[in-house]
Specification:
11 strands, 126 residues, seven-stranded mixed sheet, mainly beta
């Protein structure tokens, strides 16, 4: 069982930056690919970014490419999401998730992630 705890959310103006962090405990961190998802009010949860077990492969939602960067620190068992040039449409609850599969197919599917954090709110004001 992996426990995930997100932090770093908050209120920021359009064009600003935030850095989300997710701390993992209770499992072997390197056994999991890690992802970030978000859910806005009235909308389904959507994929934002993913990083492979070793950190060498990343994937992004098209609308965040060039603005968001996912990274992981195996010494600290954390995965971060650096968010720059934020827009009001980025407003959502952001969730960290862990995928224990050994492959990246359907990496953007909610159902393929085994463990989830409680979420952290990101609000971007216009």
């Amino acid at each position: 069982q992996v426990r995930l705890v997100e932090s770093g959310g908050g209120l920021v103006q359009t064009g600003g930056s935030l850095r989300l962090s997710c701390a993992a405990a209770g499992g072997t961190f390197s056994d999991y690919a890690m992802g970030w998802f978000r859910q806005a009010p009235g909308k389904e949860r959507e994929f934002v970014a993913r990083i492979s077990r070793g950190g060498g492969v990343t994937y992004y939602l098209d609308s965040v490419k060039g603005r968001f960067t996912i990274s992981r620190d195996s010494a600290k068992n954390t995965v971060d999401l650096q968010m720059n040039s934020l827009k009001p449409e980025d407003t959502a609850v952001y969730y960290c998730a862990a995928d224990r599969r050994r492959y990246d197919s359907n990496y953007n599917a909610v159902k393929n992630y085994d463990f989830w954090g409680q979420g952290t709110q990101v609000t971007v004001s216009s």
